[in-house]
Q: What sequence folds into this?
């Protein structure tokens, strides 16, 4: 996949651990068309040691592609080896590298956003990955690991390392996902490098899409938490970006149909026990704002069989068809 092809549909599904798995990606692809999606982050060490669960995360279906497989790690040689393994595995269109995850269990090992504290090591990793593969390589970063905002420095390191494009989340590591994303700092990154820049943070609707593009001048936008329970969002924003046309929100019937399909795919990929438990979080997102939502979520959390879960989905909203969410 060429860079031109990637940015012909520049609204991207962000990598989200525990969310953007194969089931969710296939639903988003069904609703959004051709835009690139990013996998959950995959451990380079896990690939190195051929961990079974790690290797399972590399499996994708044709219905999900094109897809960027996101890796994390802190050893240049192991990261390069993992990138080559992913390329040879055959499903990835892009190798993405995580330098933005704020999770304590990731940071304490020197991975994710912790790498922003060490631009030299960050550059060594990206150079090694770039040399190991022929696929496009990207990197996702934050504004900085702490109050020292050094996204411009890391972006220049990435560009010098041969990275093809970069995604910037407009928050520092201590912010996690709180407060407002700082789009002005993303604009500084865009102005500092020649490679394409993807802006990430607080894009939820048509208005925020317009604003982030106006402020950052970014080449694309990445959607994360706003897509949880709203797999239509990527496709709707892409259509708006390309044509200016705004799509009406899905009806209750449409939402229930997709929610059920998502659940069925989770069961197919992960089995009944895991699928039911993972769908509980998705069900909470899908039903956010629905009248009686707390009671409905309690029902989902108590459901122990596929039939029980589907029955709750089918009964959502009673006979209402005009709107899923109480406005």
A:
């Amino acid at each position: 996949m060429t860079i031109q092809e990637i940015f012909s549909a520049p609204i991207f599904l962000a990598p989200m651990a525990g969310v953007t798995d194969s089931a969710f990606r296939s639903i988003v692809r069904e609703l959004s068309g051709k835009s690139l999606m990013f996998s959950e982050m995959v451990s380079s060490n896990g690939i190195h040691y051929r961990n079974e669960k790690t290797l399972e995360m590399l499996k994708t279906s044709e219905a999900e592609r094109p897809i960027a497989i996101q890796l994390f790690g802190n050893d240049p040689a192991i990261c390069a080896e993992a990138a080559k393994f992913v390329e040879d595995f055959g499903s990835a269109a892009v190798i993405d590298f995580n330098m933005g995850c704020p999770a304590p269990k990731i940071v304490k090992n020197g991975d994710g956003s912790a790498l922003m504290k060490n631009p030299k090591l960050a550059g060594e990793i990206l150079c090694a990955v770039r040399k190991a593969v022929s696929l496009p390589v990207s990197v996702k970063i934050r504004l900085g690991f702490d109050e020292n905002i050094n996204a411009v420095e890391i972006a220049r390191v990435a560009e010098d390392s041969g990275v093809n494009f970069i995604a910037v989340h407009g928050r520092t590591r201590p912010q996690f996902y709180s407060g407002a994303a700082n789009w002005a700092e993303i604009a500084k990154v865009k102005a500092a490098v020649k490679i394409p820049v993807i802006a990430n943070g607080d894009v939820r609707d048509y208005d925020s899409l317009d604003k982030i593009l106006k402020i950052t001048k970014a080449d694309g936008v990445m959607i994360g938490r706003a897509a949880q329970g709203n797999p239509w969002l990527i496709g709707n924003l892409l259509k708006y970006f390309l044509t200016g046309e705004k799509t009406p929100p899905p009806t209750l019937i449409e939402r229930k149909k997709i929610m059920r399909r998502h659940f069925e795919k989770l069961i197919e990929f992960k089995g009944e026990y895991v699928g039911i438990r993972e769908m509980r979080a998705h069900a909470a997102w899908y039903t956010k704002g629905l009248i009686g939502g707390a009671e409905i979520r309690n029902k989902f959390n108590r459901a122990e069989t596929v039939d029980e879960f589907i029955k709750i989905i089918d009964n959502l909203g009673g006979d209402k068809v005009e709107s899923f969410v109480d406005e």
Q: What stands out?
A: Residues 252-286 form the longest helix (35 residues).
